[in-house]
Amino acid sequence: MNSLQIQFREQICDRHSQIDLYQLQELFNISAFWAKGRSIEDLGIAVANSDPVIFVCNGEQLIGFARATSDGIYRATIWDVVIHPKYRGTGLGSKLIKTILNHPRLKCVERVYVMTTCQQGFYEKIGFQPNSSTTMVLHRQSKLDSVTTEEVQLQESIVG
Ligand SMILES: CC(C)(COP(=O)(O)OP(=O)(O)OC[C@H]1O[C@@H](n2cnc3c(N)ncnc32)[C@H](O)[C@@H]1OP(=O)(O)O)[C@@H](O)C(=O)NCCC(=O)NCCS
């Protein structure tokens, strides 16, 4: 890892994106079953409306991403956490989450949520606790045309 040029960067929360949305789309396509097939336009909207947006680069290559939405005091939710498969298991995911949690926008928030299908152990190591009793969801028109039925069912099982 010492020979790599790992950098944590923050997206300035406006519509002039610093992050390469094409690389983000590719990272999701290879690493995030719930975020496959997202369009560049929609990714730009999600990034512009999230704060903070933290991403990890090795040189110019995007290798990690996470974003959060928050009211700044009571509640926040972390979304779309992903580390490129080649770079997993070296502490980057944990550092990414800690960077989000310590961000000025989130560090005073009373409760921080994350929804996860199978990474509970990863979040528990950072201090999150299981919380199966409070989450509900309203399914509206989705943009899942390019996602398989199996993946949709898996997504629904997150909140089912
Ligand atoms: C989940 C993910 C972000 C973790 O990133 P990572 O860089 O591999 O994680 P780290 O190397 O920082 O792991 C930190 C610790 O958590 C542990 N850990 C990682 N994933 C775990 C899991 N699923 N269950 C239990 N422990 C886990 C590691 O062994 C490590 O333990 P240690 O501190 O004792 O050495 C990465 O596996 C990933 O991108 N997965 C695919 C996308 C995904 O599922 N994202 C989560 C959506 S909610």
From TrEMBL:
Domain N-acetyltransferase: 6-150
Transmembrane segments: none
InterPro entries membership: Acyl_CoA_acyltransferase, GNAT_dom, NSI-like
Keyword annotations from UniProtKB, A to Z: Acyltransferase, Transferase
One GO CC term on file: cytoplasm
Signal peptide interval: none
Gene3D superfamilies: 3.40.630.30
Gene Ontology molecular function: N-acetyltransferase activity
Pfam family, one: Acetyltransf_7
Protein name as catalogued: GNAT family N-acetyltransferase
Lineage of source species: Bacteria, Bacillati, Cyanobacteriota, Cyanophyceae, Nostocales
